[in-house]
Amino acid sequence: MxxxxxxxxxxxxxxxxxxxxxxxxxxxxxxxxxxxxTHLQNQFYQVWTRNSVxxxxxVLCNEKxxxxxxxxxxxxxxxxxLLDQVNREFPSTISVVMTAYGTLDSSINAIRSNAAxxxxxxxxxxxxxxxxxxxxxxxxLQEEYQRLKNTLSSIGKPSSNQPTALMxxxxxxxxxxxxxxxxxxxxxxxSQKRFLPWEFGNLVLSQKNLFSIEMNVExxxxxxxxxxxxxxxxxxxxxxxxxxxxxxxSKSSLSIPFQNAEKTYGFFVFFFEKEFQWSIEYLRLASVxxxxxxQKIENxxxxxxxxxxxxxMVESLLRSLQLKDEGTSVHSDRVKDFTRMILExxxxxxxxxxxxxxxxxxxxxxxxxxxxxxxxxxxPLTQDQVELFKQHPIRAKEILAPLSCFSKIIPSIYHHHExxxxxxxxxxxxxxxxxxxxxxxxxxxxxxxxxxxKVYRNALTKEEAKNELxxxxxxxxxxxxxxxxxxxxEKYSFS
Length: 495
Ligand SMILES: [Fe+2]
Prior knowledge:
This protein is an alpha/beta fold. The protein is 51% helix and 12% strand.
């Protein structure tokens, strides 16, 4: 191999895999642009050259340009107009101006506000390299600042009150902060008592970022227990991940626990296609963010438990009052059983079903707030007595509304005397305007009332009660739910 080829080979060997930066050179002097292009390509820049403003804008629209290097005197429009447009429409492109000494004074303020730097013509090529290096550093700093600003504003946002949505918020913020190439998350599943991969249901990240891996969970937890993150360089990755699980081209990884003093709820694993070298401040910020969120999840769980205990306490209070009043097995529990049977035939979340079941138990709690003694009679009720009775859903709302844990339960209770044809009370809602829970409870309530002994009549047989429901199917009751109730009764041999 001759010397020329050896030099060429050495140059090729030293060429980085990706260009140093992309640069658009704009000048009406074609000889000048070609000279700059040759020099910058040798410096490993990716270079476009154009001779007018319009041509320059076209490149900016179609390519991701890191640096615009422009003369101020170019055809089509002035270089200052181009700078202004780049500033407004291509904020990620940084501008450097080439200008002759004679035109500098008049343009200096405009250059100051729109360009990162300038270079006086004529210049040496090594001078140009220094100016461009400074501009690139400035651009990196600007991007870093913007990323930190975005991260901090995301942290300040009020986050969701659902643990899953909160965790997804956190991974988005960390993604913004650390810019990993691949993201993975494990969470601790309470029912299975082990860490499982998180599906990232609503997370808007590219597919490349979401993947499934095997990993050494115990080894991770050991490091987390000592209060540290798992920071790995390329040769250390196999200690924590099977080789087949490591994403291609990964040169480093970082795992951050989602934990408070007592528990590790899960952890994020980030892989990078470059050597990991994040500043201590960034890592500290990520750590504070994840531990704050873990604490928030713990608080959510405690609040939920407290709310659940409050609802159960009110339910048991109601049961004891009803037992005293009726001296028999409790009406509200039977209504709950019939409600559960209907719910089993419906597609809805367990949480929604639980809410309706609580409403079934508490549906008549409003009766505790009105004097019903005059209603225990075998004579027909007077209009005043009917109006008094009709107050009980309103009273129920008044009793339960002060406690936020009842907010989702109240609608099913308040509307359980509405009719499907709109002739019910208290609001005269019609059809599907009536909350689903209320439409279910009214069937369960009516069926149990009809099949129980009353002061004014003996209990109907189950067949007679079914005929009554059938008679009022579509007028008083939701027809679909009546059919479903009959199907469920058959299934449980209640017919
Ligand atoms: Fe009622």
